[in-house]
Every structure is written in structure tokens, then in C-alpha cells.
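TA notes. Do not distribute before section.
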Amino acid sequence: MALRRVAALVTAGLVILAAALIVQPSIAGATASAGWTPTPGAKFNVPRSTYAQEYALEAQVIAAINHADSGSTIEMAMFSFDRIPVAQALIKAHRQRGVHVQVIVNDHEMTHAQEMMKQAFGTNRQKPSFWFQCHASCRGQGDVQHSKFVLFSHTGAARDVVMLGSLNMKVNGAVNQFNDLLTINGNTKLYTALDQVYQQMKLDRLAHPSYLIDKIDSVYTLYVLPFPRGPQATAATEWTPARDPIIKILDPVTCTGANTPSGRTVIRVNMHAWSDARGVMLAKRFEQLYKQGCDVQIQIGFAGQQVRQILGQKTSRGVMPHRSTGYDTNGDGIIDLYSHQKVLLIDGHYGTATHQKIVVTGSAEYQNGGQYGDEIIFEAKRADLYASYAANWNWMWANHTHGFSSATLGPNQG
């Protein structure tokens, strides 16, 4: 299963191009300043554009690295990492300012950037600085380490900084993928929750419990995977459709009676990879909500045949609106420009609220294995964040999607 998922992730989301071997010039970090803080909120890159737009998310991370104070700690978890400028910034922070740097990645590749960090930091996880590849998932049993987040204990004037989203430290992620990065400064509870997860990841063994739902406060909820399986799973802890985090997030939705212009609850999805039995289950849930009157629209980068068929089914309200973010720009039969986001947006009747705005982002895709590898799903009930993500979603829908035939589209062409 782990090898199968790595192959699927590499095929679908990590297209290996000659560009990946090119060392891009470093993005200049701002001069250290006591008053500087990372720009809070959501950022989105634009592939196939200008260098600044392509690497906007990386620039956010590098700036925070460059402002990290002496004796502070940077903890980074990534699925993939080939960005030499990021490695250089981390090494410089470590060697010149005494910043403790810890980097955990999946073990499917060994790039020059990772070789640099391995040599600079070593692999001893008992020391304040290290580079390490988990053997499959860090906190689970098999599968992969797919979480993507960065923690800064102190950078500039900000403390307890959390950055998370769909971003990997990859050339491919900048020049061929649309990604998101959410930055939250000064939320000690959120920082501490992810730091505790990171401490478990360092051990590279099954965590107990491995699946966590951490309600940080009334605004933020953190879902940390994997679920246990096999002999380690019990009737109370094993994955079931009812326990699936996306299903749980959707459960309070009521499709009508919303304080929105249409009176319907608005649901928007931008999902990179959507397939397998779990993907079918989630597709059916969105279809059910559409039938119940929700205003549902879906963007997908790659989708399995059964998922495409469900999305293309006619209902009493017609076909649920859906479009593809995937493009084959060079005609070789492989999608090479696509959204890598894993975003769910809800606006409307949610529980007892009639105008609740919710953003769900992170690393987890709608596939089998998503519940058994290291993944982060982050829920934020913030109207300002919803506005940022909805604006990006609408811009993507209008400018970077196309229709497709669910019946005729071949595998991984969605």
C-alpha cells in the first residue's frame, strides 16, 4: 500500500521535470528587524507566471527563516524537498545564528538539497538540529509522511508561528502547481499542538493515539492522522466512514435556511487527487448534499473513473457543477499543470449558525491511504480567511479550469 501510494502521489502530484534539477536564485530575505513579523493569513502561488508569483509561498517561508532568532527552533515537515534556496537559508540560520533546525521528510527521494541538510545537521534526532527521513509514515504503520507544515518558535517579533497548507519545497510545486500556505502568528495552543505532533514524528513509530482531533479554540480545529489499522486498531479507534474527518466536518451542514444570497449553503472544493473507495464515498456525500439543495461546486486536479462518474451523474437538480484544474500543456498525455490544493470551503447553515464561514485546508487528499499516512487537516472558522480562499477559488474556477466528459476521460486525466 505504501509503495502504491508513493507511486500514485509521484505520478499525480510530483511530475519529475528537467526543471527540478535547475537551481533557482535565492529569494532575498528581509533584513532582520525586531518589528518584523511573517505576513499572516493565506497566500497562493501562480505557476507559469513570474518568478515572484511562482515562489511566493517559498518566499514567505524563507523570510521567516531569515528572521529566526538565535536559539530559536524551526521544525519543518514535508513530503518532498528539492529546493536548494530553502536548504541554504536553513543552513545559514543554523551556522551563523545558532538556530535549531529540524527537518522531517518522506523517504521516497534523496535530492541534493536534502544531502546538503543531512551533512549540515546530521541525522541524530536527539540533538537540537537534524535532518531525517521517516521510514514510511512517521506516526503510523506504513504508507507515507505527507504532512506539510513549518513551526517557528521565534522569528522577528512573532512567536509561535505556524505555516501549513499544500506546499512542498519543490520546483514542481512552484512552476507546475497551484498551492496554498496559511500563516498564523502567536497562537500558542495551535503551535504547541503541532509541536507535540512533531515530537511524536521524530520517534518514527506508531503513536498512541495516532488519530487526534484537537479543538484548539472556538475558531480552529486540528485533525491529525493516521488512523491505526490491523492489530493496533480497535472498534473504538479504527477508521470508519462515520469517523472520517471530512465526513465529520460535513455532518453539521444543512443545505437550506442559510443566510446567503441564495438561501442555500455554499460548498466549494478544490482537491488535487480524488479516487479509490474513500474518494467514491466522499463524492457520494457531496452529491447527496447537492441533491439536498446545497450550492456545491468542485474543482479537481486528478480523479479516478468512479469518482468522475459520480460527479457526472444527473440528479433532480441536474449535474453537480465540477471542472478540472489539470492541463496537459505539452501534449504528451500527462497532466503537467494543475492545482495541488486540498481545500474545502463552507458558507451558510452549519449547526445552529446560519451564516458560518469555514475553511478546511492541509495535506490530506480524498483517496485511500489518506487516512493511514501522516496528514494534517486544519479547520478555521474565520470570515476573513474564507474571503481569501473563496476569492482564490473563484479566480481558479474562472481562469484555470476546464470542463471534461466524465464518461470518456482516461485515468489521471481529470
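Switch to the second chain here.
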Amino acid sequence: MISNIKMPKLLGIVMSLFLLIGLVGCSSDSSKKSDKKSSNESAVTVDTKFGKVEIKGHPKRVVALGWGDAETALSLGVQPIGASDWLAFGGDGVGPWLKGAYKKSPTILGTMELDYEKIASLKPDLILDVKSSGDEERYKRLSEIAPTVGVPKGGDNYLTTTTDQVRMIAQALGKVDKGEELLKDVDVAFDKAAKANPEFAGKTVAVGAYDSSGFGAYVKGDSRVDFVTRLGFKNKEEIEKLAKGNFFIKVADEKLDLLNADLTIVLPIFVDPKEITNNKLYQKIPSVADGRSIILDTNSSNAFSTGTVPALLWAIDNLPQQFKKALEGGE
């Protein structure tokens, strides 16, 4: 009964109740502000050729379309729900260096030709197209589906470097520190391999390819050329002069001497390697005639071409010895 409670005590109880209610209200407001702040802090902005792309929260449904983008996401601890298989690996669309990396297989999508409806049906919250053609129409259509991280400035025609690919994807996925760790691992591995093979320093190299249409050669900015130059080789200057912003140039049969260098490396592209070794014009290239050439097997060629961190680490473990033997004319 109120009449039995002393007035000061009653006022104390009432004031305590008001204070408690006020604290709860403040706590609620503070919590809302904190949540809002946390949400804002989790948003990141990635610079691309097409401008800044804002990504809110932590993407959970990632579609990786660029060359090696899926492998990069996997090496950062994120499993894409959809991915492109650029080198026709089959299965999960990744090289043997990442066998078993997926807990659930991704939906395999196109590469240069995309089924946009199929991509949209996956309901992605982030699309990675970091190592790609840099085609604006492709980018616009993907951006209509979900926030899309396209190529960096200067990354057109698949010339996105490994460093840019890792850093942009790591930033988009909120894995910046992990991305830097991966790049450091690659730097250490390259430094170790270069020091172990000082004879590579300054030697000229021609990195060629052969497919059903004939021969070609890669230029600076392509992962294959970047690989050999980081070991100490120098890409042949005559090839570089013909680049004109592309990662690859065609080499006519009558100009196959363009592939002559201290070391000639050739990748078979969906052809039997015997088509190369049996080619009489190829046999006449001086470096080939001297035994200073090498035709890469499937795994070596794919690791060399993919250029992702796990592929590079595999290649660094396996290719320098092959290059050394060929450079000595030991093939």
C-alpha cells in the first residue's frame, strides 16, 4: 500500500525507474548507432578502370569470372558459387594445385561469352571480373546484376598483374592482410629461385605458343612473361616492339626467327605437342636447333598461364630446373 511507504522512499523508487528506462533507451540508441557505424565501416571501395565500386558488408555469394579470379578468391579463403574455367581444367575449374579446395562445387560459367541470365540466377552479391577483357558493355551488364569489380586501369586484354588481381580481390572480400601475405610468399619464392639460378640474369627469352591457327608470342604484362622476367630473364625486345597494348602477338610462319632467343619456351594450346616438334619451320629456329628450347607439358603450361598465387608457387617449384636444362642445350 502506498500509504505504508514513506514518501522519500517512493520518490527514490520512481526516480530509479526513470533512470533505468533512460539508460535502456540510451543503450538502444547507442546500439543502433554502433550497428550503423559497423555497417559503414564494413563497406569498402575498390578502384577500377570503370571508376570506384562500393561493396557493403562481407560478400557471401561470389561469382568469379575473370581469368584466375576464382583461384585467387579460393586462396583468400572464399569459395565462389560460380566460376569460369578458362583453361578447361574440368571439374571445379581450377588447377591441380587447388584440388579439393572447394567444399561445394561451383556452377561453371562461360569465359568470353557469358550467359547473363544464368549468372543472375545465382543471385550473387559480388562479381569478380578482374582479369578480363576490360570490355565496357560486359562490365555494364554484369553491374546490373551485382556490384562488379572489373579490370584495373591498364588491365585491358587480360593484362591485369598478379599483384593487382590479388589486392583488388582481397580488398573486395575484406581480406587485405591475407592478400599481402600471399604476395609476400610469392616474392620470397621468386627471390629464392632467382638466387639459385644466377645464370638466368640478363638472358633473352621468347615465350611462344602454338594453337590450331599457328604460332604467337607473349609480351610484358602477361603472367607468363612476368614469370620469366622475375627469374632474371629479359623478354626479347623485338617481340615487345610489336605488342601495341595486347598480351599476345601472332607470329607468321615466315617470321618464326622472332622466337629465337637464349631460351625459347613454347606452350601447346589445345594441340598435340608433336605438331610443334614435327614442324620443320620450328625446327629451323636457331635456339631450337641448338637444343635451347622447351615445350611445356600440360600442368606446366597451365600453371605458367594461370598466374594465380597457388599456380605461381607450383610453377616456381617445378619450372626453373626445366629452364636451366634447356638453357644449357640439354633438352
